[in-house]
Amino acid sequence: MTTLEVTVLIAAGAFLAGLLGALTGLGGGVVIVPLLTLVFGIDFRYAVGASLVSVIATSSGAAVAYVREGYTNVRLGMLLEVATTIGALFGATLAGWIAPSALAVVFGLVLLGSAWFAAQPRPERVVESPDPLATRLRLDGTYPSLQGEKHYHVQRVPLGFGIMAGAGALSGMLGIGSGALKVLAMDQAMCLPFKVSTTTSNFMIGVTAAASAGIYLARGYVDPGLAMPVVLGVLAGATLGARVLATTRSALLRVIFAIVVGVLGVEMIINGFHGRV
Amino acid sequence: MASMDGSEPLPPPRPVWDDDAIERLLARLLQAGVLLSTLLVLAGGIVFLLHHGRATPQYSHFTGEPAELSNVAGIIRSAFRGDGRGLIQLGLLVLVATPVLRVAGSLAAFVVLKDRTYMVLTSVVLLLLASSLVAVVF
């Protein structure tokens, strides 16, 4: 195949990933690396480099819509970014010392975790009582709802901070947004309302990815010819996905996406063990 | 920005960020950054495909990028030469800069709010980001 043909096919695949990622709220980043390595036979390091920059594109691209909605908790985001950026720098540095096939196995495990996560029902766990540390850090906030402004109290700040450091490390190591883990930390551990956790997570994903992007660029992982169709495709898909989001948030789509991600996870692990990645 | 008096520790119903002019301005800047980046990547992509579209891609073997595509000075030089790959890489640099810009903007907002704790935390994040980007600048 020529470069032109490969570019068009990758752009189409990235578009689909961005669209599905936005529609299911799981982000497309997690399927970009398996798509590039398993389907197109691209080197793991180039795949991770292209994926990471596409993660920044979707995060910054969606930020405008999210700010307009007005749920982002900037204080909480900034506090947790201390954890994610430290994690990301650590993860990206570590990735340089680990064999790509071993990283592929880790990636496969993350995919399986994401698939499981996508299939789980997650109850909203808004708590009425304030937490002393959260109060001192002024993390509590309000969000608009049908019943007017609603207050929420952030819980278990140290646990959330710890999970975020892990999310950052995975993001830096594997070139993904770790959106699932970020949302898990915020709406399950810290008991934020969904709308606040989703938008704050989006705000953080771009910053976390930017922390490892410098290391990736300097190491030569970001190939412009490859990153071009990935970034443009994911951005176009995610933008379209955000437009139709209001009309079609189907549970079926989540199940399909979970199955696809799970299958890719198994494939990544098998290929990693055989050293084919 | 009517309720931006941060001199006293505020009770829970604190000023909400979302109505903030700074936040909205930042969102606009992000949007402009993403747009500029997209245009650069698109333009570079067209030039790249016109020159190399018929070649066979070498993505399956990792060789790493040459210095002129992995540090800022080299990228700017090759972009201004009209090299397709250089233009794409410049677009990607702009993209990486957008979240950094957002953090810098938040720092400015916390300075306006006189919020010491978050001035410090935001500065730490900014320093961590800078420490990663140092590798690309030099």
Description:
The complex is a heterodimer of chains A (277) and B (138). By secondary structure, chain A is mainly alpha-helical. Helices cover 74% and strands 4% of the residues of chain A. Chain A has helices at residues 3-24, 29-39, 44-69, 74-95, 100-119, 132-136, 157-174, 179-189, 194-218, 224-244, 251-273, and strands at 141-145, 148-152. In chain A, helix 2 packs across helix 11, helix 7 (157-174) packs antiparallel against helix 8 (179-189) and helix 8 (179-189) packs antiparallel against helix 9 (194-218). Chain B has one domain (18-52, 66-137). Mean pLDDT of chain B is 84; it is low at 1-6 and 10-19.
Summarize the SSE layout with pairings.
The complex is a heterodimer of chains A (277) and B (138).
Chain A: H1 3-24, H2 29-39, H3 44-69, H4 74-95, H5 100-119, H6 132-136, E1 141-145, E2 148-152, H7 157-174, H8 179-189, H9 194-218, H10 224-244, H11 251-273
Helix pairs in contact in A: 1-2, 1-10, 1-11, 2-3, 2-11, 3-9, 3-10, 4-7, 4-9, 5-11, 7-8, 7-9, 8-9
Chain B: H1 21-52, H2 72-80, H3 84-112, H4 116-137
